[in-house]
Amino acid sequence: MPRIQQLPDHLINQIAAGEVVERPASALKELLENSLDAGSQNLSIELLAGGTKLIKVIDDGCGIAKDELPLALHRHATSKIRDLDDLQKVATLGFRGEGLASIASVSRLTLSSREQGSDYAWRVDADNGHVSEPEPTSLSQGSTIEIHELYYQVPARRKFLKSESTEFAHCSDMVQRLALANPGVQFTLSHNGRAQLRLLAGDLAKRAAAILGDAFVASGVQVDEGFGGLRLWGITGSPTLGKSSRDAQYFFVNGRFVRDKVVQHALREAYRDVLHHDKHAAYCLFLELDPEGVDVNVHPTKIEVRFRESQAIYRFMLTSLKKALAGTRAGTVPAGIDPETGEIAAPDSSVMAPAPAMTPKNYAEMAYKQGNFQPQPRVQAPMAFYDTMFADLKRAPGEASASDSSSWTPEPTPSFSNDSQERKFAPAVPAGALMPAAAISPAATAPSRASDSETVPPLGFALGQLHGIYILAQNAEGLIVVDMHAAHERVVYEQLKNALDLHQMPTQPLLIPHVFAADKHDVATVEDHAETLEAIGFEISVQSPTQLAIRSLPMLLKDANPIELAQAVLKDIRMVGASEVLAGRQNELLATMACHGSVRANRSLTITEMNALLRQMEATERSGQCNHGRPTWFRMTLNELDKMFMRGQ
């Protein structure tokens, strides 16, 4: 039987290298974290053959003293912790002191450094675990470390490395993660002598735009919430820009990139009813908390952490993200996008400022108070329906000014012909709307785009329907296309959630109960879960072993097909149970109810109904997406239309 023996230090380091240095990107991570801990503001990375031939990092940090250079390449030698108390509240990226020693045991390593305030620079070499004595060298302040021929001492391990392009891609991803966590540090990356990435120091918005794209920053949602000793801040992506993969998901805990199940579950739940099931959210978020509240020493590569109060972290993140996403309403244009051209402007730190909330009444009052407003020709026709929609907010005849009467015609009133007795209506169109363009005075077209946008709501006014599915509307910037079923579904869904949360679900009693045939499972569900049905606004009674009667249903769904709605609700309750329906699966049930209670395709709507739906969308949280994460509206600017028809070219 083999005898137990103490392994040599060199073999111990090689074993550790198998865990810490999984591939060239892992070695690069260790070097960059040391440079960042040293206070570097400018990092230069050079790679050859994807990092398998050479990894070189040049920084301008505080440097290492001559006497400490050989010690830096020994196992468990570090300047970042001293005792157990320091280990329990680690505030640096590195702390174990085994990264350089492990790398030196499986490569040829050269470490040069010049300590801050020192007149000379020194260098040590390590080959197969043997460290040389310090020698003088030429170097400005900071450190330079070179790793040659990674795994040349362990050919079996080198066989598991992928192609040069794959290994470089992993190295590039590692640089981007650390660059996002440190936007104030400049990063330069070159591969095989060619510059691949250059990130200038700046703020998070500029760094995220360089890595994740301008569209992510311009359309993203800014998050900055705090509670107690917790703070969550950063940029989370718009649900309409969901990704097909998880490549654009960056989460940092105290500046360290991590993947944590608690965090990922909170993010999935926050996006559940605004993101399509085939898409993944993009985000760049930072969680800050007391270092004693998180254990970073639970994984060899430190990519996983363990929270002391994981449930509190989960609730805080879920609440903060839902609050941020609730502010996304249909019609609002992010500050980073030019409303006239639709192009993305240069991102800055203030691109996520929320737009002021406006209600339909605000728009109506504003339009009627601005008696001297003359709409531009392109918005005059849809503005004609304004009077019809907001007739209840019109001024009394005695209050109308002369300018009011010159700008708007009265609401259409019926008139009868003496001969045919046919009913005719006077068109409710502004006086200048039917005049040729040449007949409109310059003063009538003088108002600027600013005055136009102040009077016209974000989603504009309805023009009509397209194939009974889409609403076409016109606003100050161009054309708006709305999926009326998806939009109404979101409006009803949010109303149901609010009513249920307040325990004020209004019900509509039915004068004549709807009786329908039901199987024994539905009958048993009604008998067992009558209280659950009552809580969500249903009163269903058992008429016979094969029949059920619907006596009341939620007021918000009074126009839905009662029988189809009841059957869908009973099926959901039977499948997941009453307790789950009113707890974790509550929103799924409400989504089913909203889907059955919303306006269906191929239903003809009046202009007034279309405008009412547009105003509801503007006042409803998360109305940019339906319950299933599909977009509810789309905007095409005049500039985009001009390009399509080559106007001005």
Automatic annotation (TrEMBL):
Extent of Polar residues compositional bias: 402-419
What positions does the domain MutL C-terminal dimerisation occupy? Answer: 462-605
Where do the record's region annotations for Disordered lie? Answer: 396-423
Q: Which Gene3D superfamilies does the UniProt record give? A: 3.30.230.10, Histidine kinase-like ATPase, C-terminal domain, MutL, C-terminal domain, dimerisation subdomain, MutL, C-terminal domain, regulatory subdomain
Report the domain of life of the source organism.
Answer: Bacteria
Family matches, as Pfam families: DNA_mis_repair, HATPase_c_3, MutL_C
Q: Which stretches make up the DNA mismatch repair protein S5 domain? A: 208-326
Q: Which GO terms describe its molecular function?
A: endonuclease activity
DNA repair listed as a keyword: yes
UniProt keywords (A-Z) are:
DNA damage, DNA repair, Endonuclease, Hydrolase, Nuclease
This chain's function reads: This protein is involved in the repair of mismatches in DNA. It is required for dam-dependent methyl-directed DNA mismatch repair. May act as a 'molecular matchmaker', a protein that promotes the formation of a stable complex between two or more DNA-binding proteins in an ATP-dependent manner without itself being part of a final effector complex.
> Which HAMAP family did the record assign?
DNA_mis_repair
User: What family, per the record?
Assistant: Belongs to the DNA mismatch repair MutL/HexB family.
Q: Cross-referenced PANTHER family, in alphabetical order?
A: DNA MISMATCH REPAIR PROTEIN MLH, PMS, MUTL, DNA MISMATCH REPAIR PROTEIN MLH1
* Protein's recorded name: DNA mismatch repair protein MutL
Organism source for this protein? Answer: Iodobacter arcticus
